[in-house]
Prior knowledge:
The protein is of the alpha+beta class.
Amino acid sequence: MEGRQLGGRYHVIRYIGGGGMASVYLAQDMVLDRYVAIKTLHEEYSNNWEFIQRFIREAKTVGRLSHPNVVSVYDTGVDNQVYYMVMEFIDGASLAHWIREKGPLSPFETISIAIHICNGLAHAHDHGIIHRDIKPHNILFTQNGQIKVSDFGISRFVESNTSLTQTGIVIGTVDYFSPEQARGLNLTCSSDLYSVGVVLYEMLTGRTPFSGTDFLSIALQHIQEPFPDPISINPHVPDKLRYIIHRATQKDPIQRYQSAYEMANDLQHALLELQNHQPMVANSGNMGHGHESSGTPSLIQQASEHAPKLIQELIQSKNPKKHFIVEAMKLLYKIIKK
């Protein structure tokens, strides 16, 4: 595929990655002179006309999405029996890479990332699109620190060879399955939010909630086993965050968050709660009397003095996390100035 030109305008440069369904390539849009990512369907799917039609319709639907937390889809087409989708190229790491490199993330990082995931999902759900494959691999970070949800509208139409029911179709990644997804039932917006709950758990603990030797054993645990409390692995998980994970991962979809907006709202409150409960620097003689140490400025005093400069320095830096850190710092600065 390298060196080939698709649709008369997309020059394929190199292979980026892929899976059982498709391959992804870096390409150059010769018309607009920009880099793009092109996902091409494997040959076995290009012979299913019904799938092709639905894929094209879905690509066009996703192409109408425009949100800073969603990877944009620019174009779709076919060239010599190669069906392809042209997307925004994200030259950055995935959340899966971060977790693999860093291990568990802090509650602050976890909440900040999850808010952006929910914002992107809320926009998609408003347009009638269910992702069906939310996982760290599909959460990408741009060079300027933006968080993007990728791979919308493709996995929902892929027929897996593994089905847990005779009539159901199992789609997605088993480690992040909702119980109804594991059964091959119809999915709703709350199915995506269950997967976000799993991602929250993994960010805080460095591992997925269920493990097993095969696909079926993990899927059955999502259906039958209580979702584990992350505090059993990470004792520093705030209670509010534990509650959010607990609610998002209920077995019954009705008992979960019913919209990504609702979940994002709780995450925002958890972030504020986390910021408001930062300890103050005080000497032991004044502890419990409401007085700060006369010799050492409080954490709030220090933050008030240095936050504006830190924000500006961070904006100018190349820190891949700076987008959501800056937002959180600005929010904290507003709080401490009150």
